[in-house]
Design brief:
CATH topology of the largest domain: Rossmann fold
Helix content: 25-40%
Bound molecules: pantoate
Number of helices: 10
Shape: globular
Number of strands: 10
CATH superfamily of the largest domain: HUPs
Strand content: 15-25%
Radius of gyration: 19 Å
Strand order of the largest sheet: 1-4-3-2-5-6
CATH class of the largest domain: Alpha Beta
Order of helices and strands: EHEHEHEHHHEHEHHHEEEE
Length: about 280
């Protein structure tokens, strides 16, 4: 396994692989890798000849009062995990390499970034689409894999790839959960023991909404209300629900009344100081 930190070396290496006729799969990450990331890498390994994992904590997708400074990092551990699943190249650029002086170009998906996470994190998705475009240009992938936990991010990236004609197949990979149901996330490391013990209540409430839906409760507002009630009744720690909404799975339009198309329930919760997101296809 090779570790590359320079843009030019990364692009040369990708070009060389393409010249040799090898297909390339990219798994973009911000590091502090967990089983969810490793699952993306395993799927990438099945798809392509060359698997590239990028590890880059992208400063421009964090808001001014967010956790950029304390975002967990463990490069040595991450490299060992990448090696264990057969990654070929780990791309670890520095912020100066990605955003050199004079940088002033961004990529914006205008509409589906305005609600859900975009409502409270105004420049977040612009930061994501900008860095992902750069990573695409630097690693020249045929495939790029993203987790479905960040459901809106996946939809935004699919929109960008379609709108800008990137010749890349985007592959969404189902959420990997801890045994108690909590969706895996690098940010779970922030949770103190009591909050960690309570966090699975979020998924339990979503699952319950799924059960109620299958039993015939098909009013979106009513389903969201039951999730909210269940979470507020089961979590004692400081817990603030940022949103619980149901959206069309394919075009991300919000559904407020009767659910009659494939739909996904999405949630963001602040548990203590930690912001957690999760979702479930109904
Ligand atoms: O999902 C993430 O970890 C990040 O948003 C991504 C896609 C690596 C871009 O920085």
């Amino acid at each position: 396994m090779q570790q590359i930190s320079s843009n030019l070396k990364m692009q040369d290496s990708a070009r060389e692989s393409r010249r040799r006729g090898q297909s390339i799969a990219l798994v973009p990450t911000m590091g502090f890798l967990h089983e969810g990331h490793l699952e993306l890498m395993r799927k990438a390994r099945e798809k392509a000849d060359l698997v590239v994992v990028s590890i880059f904590v992208n400063p421009i997708q964090f808001g001014p009062n967010e956790d950029l400074d304390r975002y967990p990092r463990d490069l040595e551990g991450d490299l060992a995990k990448c090696r264990s699943v057969g990654v070929d190249i780990v791309f670890t650029p520095t912020p100066e390499e990605v955003y050199p002086e004079g940088f002033q170009t961004v990529v914006t998906v205008t509409e589906i970034t305005k609600f859900l996470c975009g409502a409270s994190r105004p420049n977040h998705f612009q930061g994501v689409t900008t860095v992902v475009s750069k990573l695409f240009n630097l690693t020249l992938p045929d495939y790029a894999l993203f987790g479905e936990k960040d459901f809106q991010q996946l939809a935004v990236i699919r929109r960008m790839v379609a709108d800008l004609h990137f010749p890349i197949e985007i592959i969404g990979v189902p959420i990997v959960r801890e045994t108690d149901g909590l969706a895996m996330s690098s940010r779970n490391a922030y949770l103190p023991p009591k909050e960690r013990a309570e966090a699975p209540e979020i998924y339990k409430a979503l699952k319950n909404a799924g059960t109620l839906f299958r039993k015939g409760l098909d009013d979106a507002t009513e389903l969201c209300r039951t999730v909210s009630e269940q979470i507020n009744n089961s979590i004692e720690s400081d817990c603030e629900i940022e949103y619980i909404e149901i959206h069309d799975t394919n075009n991300l339009t919000q559904i407020k009344n009767k659910i009659s198309t494939p739909a996904t329930i999405l949630i963001a919760v602040h548990l203590g100081k930690t912001r957690l997101i999760d979702n479930l296809q109904l």
